[in-house]
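Notes, Module 5: Reading structure tokens.

Key idea: the token line is not a picture. It is a compressed description, and you learn to read it the same way you learned to read a sequence, by spotting repeated patterns. We will look at two proteins. The first is printed below with its tokens.
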Amino acid sequence: MSALPAITHHHLLTEEELVALNADQRVEIIDGKPVEKSNMGGIQNFVTQNLYELLSPIVKKHKLGYLMLDSLIYLMNMQGKKIKGAHIPDLSFIRKANLIKDWDISQNYPGAPDLAIEVISTGDKFNEVLYKVRRYLERGTEEVWLISPELKLIYQHRHDHMALARIYQNDDRLDASAFFPGVEIVVAELFVLPELG
């Protein structure tokens, strides 16, 4: 979560300034500071795709809400027109009932997702990722799932139990019914990679 060296702002960024930064790299704002988000490698992309392909048909069939890929910026902490906190989860979900009604869909989202999913990349520092998890939960995200392709684990963090994380591995089933009724995610299946070549 190292601050961008090319940025020497001593003031909070505006949304326009953040969008300009994201034209070249994925940048989040944490405690008012612009931070470059680690690039995902192939494994992280395949794992994210596996989860998206599992959840997307269910979300669409039951009209549950909106499953967003990693290009949407959530403006989660604003001071007037200045940004104190903005995140770009690798995958996220907003319940239909919770969608901000006057959101201009050509713009960034002015709030927090109900579910944020972060796939840990090689360049991520775990303590910094956990710090970001706390920021999600403090701003109204119900759950954050951290997925570690390296360890083949899912860490489930919940708003109502901020101090605890449940860890899933191997053939464990993560009960996702709070967001996707009747859905259990078999952890090992997320880490099945395609045969290349």
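Here is the second protein, with the sequence above and the tokens below, as before.
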Amino acid sequence: MASVANDYRVSVLSDGLPFGATVAGLTREHLESAEVRRRLNAFWIEKGVLLFRGGESSQEMQLELSRCFGTLEPHLFPESRQEGFPDLVKIKFYPEDGSYYEVNGEMRGGWLPWHCDLMYTHRINRGGILRPAQLPSSGGETGFIDQIAAYDRLPADLRDQIEGLHVVYQVEIDMSAQPFTNHGEVRLVRMAASGSNIEKRKFSYPRVIHPMVYTQIETGRKILNISPGFALGIYEDGTAKGDALLREVIEICTEPAVAYFHMWQEDDMVLWDNWRTLHCAKGVPPAQTRVMERTTIAGDYALGRPLGLDGPVADFAV
């Protein structure tokens, strides 16, 4: 792939991966160019995940780079915001505080299953940039799965079955209580203090629905729009048959062989399209510390709806 400028380089994220790109050597000076911003946006739409490596990496660079892709907004939960930087989310695990789980017999601090951010709201954010503030000595990888490639992998009969269907989502901070994450045996050992505060008011947030499939406006490509984390079931079929259909689709879209797991370096930053990729956190040993900072790039693909007692809230036929 040709470089978009003479002094920074664009290459594949990983050989054989159907999504993602690496941008090496980018600085804030590059971002002064409207043409550079336009080309970065085009790469993002095409590739879904961009790794920025070997360039400028700081809170200021993270914020300015994020603004190349849209307006920033504070996270829905005040507990998640970085003090002094309302446009940054602090994602942390400390030995003395932070959620950790036993996942198939292994203790993991800061573990998160496959999910899309804010899928439990009707207006999911466009994306975000994640940057490490403190990395552990082991573990801490972040996984990504492309939902365009996932849709392409679905058998034709399964595509036909899910066309026009919707999934119900709700706020749930305890990841062991998620019914569709497909991670085997998961047990919550300790909830982070911030998570406990959010959990107390989770019933104040409405359930929402999102379509299982939608079309990427810029390219016409179909996207499998499913977040295993926060999912409750198929809106049109809340029976065991509907649950089995959702699990079958999730099993195909989260095959480990098609995932990319990023091993972080100190100055890395990763941007992902939250409307077309799943991500997860593999977690760290409970004695380790991991602190990450993330921006929230605002947006609304205008297909989600809150659920009231009489169904979706808005002029939205199902």
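Summary for the second protein:
- The first helix runs from residue 34 to 47.
- Residues 71 and 298 are 6 Å apart (CA to CA).
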